[in-house]
Amino acid sequence: MTDGEAWGALLALGRQPGAAAIRSRLDADPGRAATFTHQAAGLTLDLSRTALTPAVLDALLALARARGVAAFRDSMAAGQAVNGTEARAALHMALRGPEGAFRAGSEDASAAVHGTLAAMAGFVRAVHEGEILGARGDRFTDVVNIGIGGSDLGPAMVTRALWQTGMPMRAHYLANVDAHAWEALRPTLDPARTLVLVASKTFTTQETMANAGLVKAWLAASLGEEGARGHLAALSTNLPATAAFGIAPDRVFGFRDWVGGRFSLWSAVGLSIALACGMGAFQGLLAGARAMDEHFLAAPEDANLPLLLAATEVWHVNALGYPARAVLPYDERLARFAAHLQQLEMESLGKRVTVQGAPVAHATGPVVFGEPGTNAQHSFLQLIHQGTTPVPVDFVLVARPDHGHAASHRILLANALAQAEALARGRTEAEARAEMQRAGLPPHEIDRLAPHRTFPGDRPSVSILLPALTPESLGALVALYEHKVACLGAFWGINPFDQWGVELGKQLAGGILPALAGDAPASDAATAAMVAAIRRLQG
Ligand SMILES: O=P(O)(O)OC[C@H]1O[C@H](O)[C@H](O)[C@@H](O)[C@@H]1O
Question: Where is the catalytic site (predicted)?
């Protein structure tokens, strides 16, 4: 089947009457949950509350073959330059792979990875055991990771998920160049006991370098310049720039340009995770991701979790025209999971031209947003239940909590399951009327309220079940989404590994800085007017 035929067949299925129906499919087939549930790396993925049918799945997998999704995956694993616009490989799998498994061109990628992992393990051990001490001889109790985007979101999300009282160090994440962030953090820290990691792949990111300057000056003010140096480490690909910033070479943990920022939490960028939660937790995270990698590389297409998740997204975005997706982890510890996926997915898939540079002929990445349940139920889920456009939901559920409050956990899970059921099944007008009759409402009230109390249903969701939130299950979960993103890049013919869209604003900000200082006019009239208003208000 050609590419065009495969797209045509899929889109035709999406146009069939009842294509988006979910409730009737659940009712017609009691075995639907079993048919559409798959497992890998300890995770369970339930796709039964979508409108997928065996015929739709066949069409999606035919499209995957026509689009060369498996070939793209294999090129990625082989270290080929799948990131064409930057002429780079995308070898984040090497970061958690066994020794000798991955090459990037002539480079033994795995050797570089394992060298850095050994250096990280040695550093973490020395800090935890008090061999490396602060300038005044104190043990380090706190680590501040200064970074933004991929140098912040991944490690911040993971530490939030895994950190428990009693773990070796407290971790803090400083991302925004808004110095209110630093001013809020600063009073909570003792410079004598604070280790500072400057995390930046490029080591040129304006926000990170500005914050690094502030924090370095804060350290130096109490410990002196030389003392401050002993509290600093860098996580970067740009070794000359780390040296120019004054970071000792043995405190630089490197990685290569074949690690994309949003795929970098497994690299030296994850050092704050290892310092805060322990090197064992970091290794567990890598092991979980590796289990998902192995599944992704070997599982047949009709049981391959990342491919199935990507295919489901193609069905929703392209065949059914749904422009957004919500991510609802029913676990407070995953409070930053949606934020991580926002960068992972929207920076990867927010593209309007193909890898060849031609405009894409179809929709690409949807808007991704989310909050933990149950909080989300009391804010935006109204729109997802009764708004005009279906918004597919990813539910993430954790079977066993790490607290002893079984009743609370049952309430949490009951709500997650209820939301998925309510979205899929809805409530017909007849059901709404019957319920109001049972409640004794008068007929005119029933007539008035029935449309408002009707839920259309047929609103899709997928559910991902983790046995417990462990380093291993979290690693597998994040890797599942990373591979989903790679598959979608291939489905859509776009480069999921570049991010040129973030550049223009950066360049313009450089030009506007002198205007804000009053040294030069702004070139854009609207900007100039706002600059003038700001300067008037600043006096
Ligand atoms: O790690 P850095 O080089 O400082 O980059 C930090 C972030 O900023 C960039 O603008 C990109 O949008 C992100 O992909 C990246 O993760």
Answer: 347 (proton donor), 378, 506
User: Does residue 385 lie within any of the structural domains?
Assistant: yes
User: Whose C-alpha lies nearest to ligand 1, atom 4?
Assistant: 200
Position 176 scores a pLDDT of 98
Helix, strand, or coil here: 46? strand
> How does strand 107-108 pair with strand 103-104?
antiparallel
pLDDT at 1 > cutoff 90: no
Average pLDDT of the chain, as a whole number = 97
Give the DSSP letter string of 23-40: HHHHHH-TTHHHHTEEEE
Of the residues 225, 248, 283, the one at which a domain ends: 283
pLDDT recorded at residue 412 = 98
- Asked whether residue 110 carries a pLDDT value surpassing 90, the answer given is yes
The span from the CA of 75 to the CA of 90, in Å, is 9
Out of 92, 148, 153, 272, give the residue to mutate to test ligand 1, the one with the largest number of ligand atoms within 8 Å of its CB: 148
β-pair partners for 398: 466
Check whether 400 has a pLDDT greater than 90. Answer: yes
Does residue 40 have a pLDDT over 90? yes
Q: How many A from CA of 517 to the centre of ligand 1? A: 26
- Residue 350: band (very low, low, confident or very high) from pLDDT cuts 50, 70, 90: very high
Q: Are residues 232 and 314 in the same domain?
A: no
Measured CA to CA in angstroms, residue 386 lies from 26, 381, 450 at distances of 20, 9, 13
Q: What is the pLDDT of residues 244-271, one digit of tens each?
A: 999 999 999 999 999 999 999 999 999 9
Same domain, 148 and 226: yes
Asked if residue 396 lies in contact with residue 477, where contact means CB atoms within 8 angstroms, the answer is yes
Question: What are the pocket residues of ligand 1 if the criterion is a CB atom closer than 6 Å to any ligand atom?
Answer: 147-151, 200-202, 205, 208, 261-262, 347, 499, 502
What is the number of domains present in the chain? 3
**Own/partner long-range contacts of 22-26 (Cβ < 8 Å, ≥24 apart):** 22/49, 22/50, 22/51, 22/424, 22/425, 22/457, 22/458, 22/459, 22/460, 23/424, 23/425, 23/426, 23/457, 23/458, 25/51, 25/53, 26/424, 26/425
Looking at the annotation, which residues are catalytic? 347, 378, 506
Domain closes at, from 241, 258, 283: 283
Atom in ligand 1 nearest the alpha carbon of residue 261: 16
Structure tokens belonging to residue 261: 């920022």
Contact at 8 Å (CB) between 529 and 522? no
CA distance 65 to 340: 29
Residues 61 and 100 in one domain: no
Q: Tell me, yes or no, whether 13 and 106 share the same domain.
A: no
| Distance in Å, CA 525 to ligand 1 centroid | 29
Amino acid at 144: V
Give residue 513's domain range.
501-538
Which ligand 1 atom is nearest residue 151's CA? Answer: 1
Task: For residue 342, report the distance from its CA to the centre of ligand 1, in Å.
Answer: 14
Q: What is the pLDDT of residues 143-196, one digit of tens each?
A: 999 999 999 999 999 999 999 999 999 999 999 999 999 999 999 999 999 999
What's the angle, vertex CA 413, arms to CA 408 and CA 418, rounded to 5? 125
